[in-house]
Amino acid sequence: MTSILSPPSQANKANTKVIVKYVDLPLQFRRYKHEILQRIEQVCESGQYILGPELERFEKDFAVYCQCKHAIGVANGTDALFLVMKALGIGPGDEVITATNSFLASAGAVAAIGAKPVLVDVQDDLNIDPAAIERAITPATKAIIPVHLTGRPADMNKILDISRRHHLFVIEDAAQAVGAEYNGKRVGSLGTAAAFSLHPLKILHVYGDGGVITTNDDALADALRKLRNHGLVTRDICERWGYNSRLDSIQAAIANVRLSHLHEDHQVLQSVAAAYRKGLHDVVVQGSVIVPQDKPHERAVYHTFIIQCDQRDALQAYLLSHGIETKVHYPIPIHAQQPGRELGYKSGDLPRAEFLATRILSLPIYPGLTEEQISLVIKTIHSFYQQPINNKMGFSKNN
């Protein structure tokens, strides 16, 4: 079994012709190139680069999209988490519970605010385990950060029930899940507040860093708008110490274009996911692969399409040797990273996440993938599992 302390190795890419990129940002840019360049030009002609009308428009439209009263554009998704905790008064001496299998920022923002990240295990769908949350609550616990990992909503009914019984804030980490729905409600509208990322690898992305906070709490929204802009009430009057964490107008303009096409992008991602599920049915039946399945109460948006598979490292190397890039999100759980070990965690503490980290593999999924490329991914996975077991185990060493 692969150690959780060591990320999986890949075959040398230098001699591999890539046929299916894991992600193709230039291709996605070309889809909306003329709209984006026109909007950027308008911002440049206006000279309103900071907190201008493009940002106001994006915040209004994004709030409506997320079925929330307020959206606040900030510099990045990590700042979004940090600023929400700051506005809620979370800090030194407090604890915040989150999942161990997320990107480092989910827990890192907690540490940055001065609180203690409390990392817990996950379920088979890769989302945080509500039972593990309840077991981790102490008198110092102030908030829960459920991560809607891979574009699938966490089990929010159970999480919200826990939060009400223990009087805790719920801060949704929706960085990967813009547009996902839980029981008919959009993520970002379910908790005290939510943090979104507009990083280039996200479904709704800008061309650099960017983030958004959503909330239905008027007072919290007011505090956040001041915190992101140095604590200023007006250009000359400061109400409190704040931060410089604003979503620039050019990035907001790009986000406006992307938001207008988000529905069609989601449709493409869901169709790719459906094609993978159908095409991989045989290897699922034989027990070599598990594919994500939509639950009746959710609408997943498939920021990533993560399979769980036998012989993960060998399969990844085999795919790359056939020109197919894949990734692992994430090969080392946060509790197994150096900062996590400094919090007192050790191997075996969160066994489900550790086990899944040795089996998960993210397949290419983005608007612009062709049917031929999707078919190649499916056929190559089938080909790998039709090999003799000895070849599969030794593939990465021999190639």
Q: What is the CATH T-level topology of the largest domain?
A: Aspartate Aminotransferase, domain 2
Total DSSP helices: 16
Q: Give the assembly state of these chains.
A: single chain
Mean pLDDT, rounded to whole units? 94
Spatial order of strands in the largest sheet: 1-9-8-5-4-2-3
Q: Please identify which CATH superfamily of the largest domain we are dealing with.
A: Type I PLP-dependent aspartate aminotransferase-like (Major domain)
* Proportion in β-strands: 5-15%
Number of domains: 2
Short description:
The chain has helices at 25-31, 33-46, 53-65, 77-87, 105-112, 130-136, 156-166, 218-227, 249-260, 262-279, 281-285, 312-321, 338-342, 351-357, 371-385, 389-398; strands at residues 70-74, 95-99, 116-120, 141-145, 169-173, 181-182, 185-186, 193-197, 211-215, 289-290, 298-299, 305-309, 360-363.
